[in-house]
Amino acid sequence: MNYKLYSFEEIPSTQEYAHELIASGTATDRAVIIAGAQSAGRGRYRRTWISKPGNLYASFIYKIEKREPRLSYAVAVAIAETMISFGIDPKIKWPNDILIDGKKVSGTLIEYSKDFVIVGIGVNIKSNPVVAGYETTKLDRYKRGITRDKFLVALMDRLDEWAAHLSRGDFAPVRARWMELAAGLDSEIKYQGKPAILCEINPDGALVLRRGNDYILALGDEISI
Length: 225
Known about the structure:
Helices cover 25% and strands 33% of the residues. By secondary structure, it is of the alpha+beta class. The longest helix is centred in the last third of the chain and has 20 residues, at 148-167.
């Protein structure tokens, strides 16, 4: 496993701490910052990530030679597989949110700084926030006895396992498993406010949608299931 661990009871943001390590020149490959709680956690598009004690708030630092736009899929599969190992049945909402019974239980924020990538992962284990606009849930509702530390150890193994496929240039297993776990595949979703059929992700990592007879390749936009 060989991760260097930085552990805090509470900090503003594990993601921001990771950026500070990189900016100061003290960051190392395979470091992970975890916090019992965050006072200024954030998700994609700088949305507030409510961070109460008992959940997993972690930012993983990896040294990279180049950016890998398909990393979010490997991370999503790793998180889902970790939940499966605890007897839970998750689904992946494109690109990397994890759902249980259609409710969000985990989110991921991937950012780049210098020659590092920071993978921020939040998992609702003991509590889930009330968020306007969508439903959330927690692992404790489906399986008792999962602790943050148990989940973190299992997650580290699976991140290594699925990221290794990308480092070998072999996206096919990641793509196949992501589509097996995908929420809304072959069904109607909302893309840019209009209905479309979610078909697949292609070998380059683009989301393939169909609207009538037209096919759309989506990168970076949100969908609603």
